[in-house]
Design goal:
The protein is mainly α and about 230 residues long. The chain is built from 13 helices and no strands.
Length: about 230
């Protein structure tokens, strides 16, 4: 099972390792903490872009409350991820808390796009392993980057682009799994509208709110049509 999970998570490995190293380098070069605090942050917080944001804020002496609020806003999208997976995680027992904790953008993409069998318990075990593998990749990247930043001087400009590349790969995987482009085009359109109408600090939340609203309207429409069809056949 571990070999199949490793193959499934290879795209995440190639994204998380350099991105985690980028975070580790930033952490070691901009903050006056021991290098091992970077992987510890990856274990306890595991927020990806949120950790990079936290380093930037702490480097300019922002208060802990400011850091907390900024990270909460940036990661508020995970609330929507969790709501959509409530049924999938039902009955997962002790694994459920970790599945919720480890639900990053990339893990969510894998859990919702991979083929699933009829055995719910087995599939939840696979979900758990996928989540664990992905966090291990991230923590390893954080540790390597922090060690490099603490001991080697080099130009790391551009390494953060790994996150963008990873999102592109996962979007293509979602498109192939869904078989339709409506969610992709909806997301792109919402992002464009948010960039035109909102300040940078609110663009992500604005785009998410717009996408959520449109999807809820579409869901009500599809559900209403389904009920009408049942009424005709009933």
């Amino acid at each position: 099972m571990n070999q199949s999970v490793f193959r499934l998570t290879l795209p995440i490995l190639f994204g998380y390792l350099p991105l985690g190293m980028a975070f580790g380098v930033l952490f070691a070069t901009q903050l006056d903490y021991a290098w091992w605090a970077a992987p510890l942050m990856g274990i306890l917080i595991y927020a990806g872009a949120g950790q990079i944001l936290a380093v930037s804020l702490l480097a300019v002496n922002a208060g802990l409350l400011e850091v907390f609020v900024a990270m909460f806003v940036l990661n508020a999208r995970h609330l929507f991820y969790g709501l959509s997976l409530l049924g999938q995680f039902r009955g997962a027992g002790w694994r459920k808390l970790y599945l919720i904790f480890g639900l990053t953008d990339e893990t969510y993409s894998l859990l919702t796009s991979r083929p699933r069998g009829p055995d719910r318990g087995h599939e939840q075990e696979v979900d758990f392993r996928i989540t664990g593998f992905n966090q291990c990749y991230w923590v390893a990247g954080c540790a390597l980057g922090a060690l490099l930043g603490d001991n080697v001087a080099f130009d790391s400009t551009g390494i953060e682009f790994a996150l963008v590349a990873l999102f592109v790969v996962l979007t293509l995987e979602q498109l192939r799994a869904l078989g339709e482009g409506f969610p992709i085009w909806l997301g792109a359109g919402a992002a464009g509208i948010a960039m035109l109408l909102l300040p940078p600090a609110h663009q992500l939340i604005g785009a998410i709110a717009l996408v959520t609203g449109v999807l809820l309207i579409e869901y009500r429409k599809v559900r209403s049509q389904g009920l009408q069809e049942e009424g005709r056949h009933g």
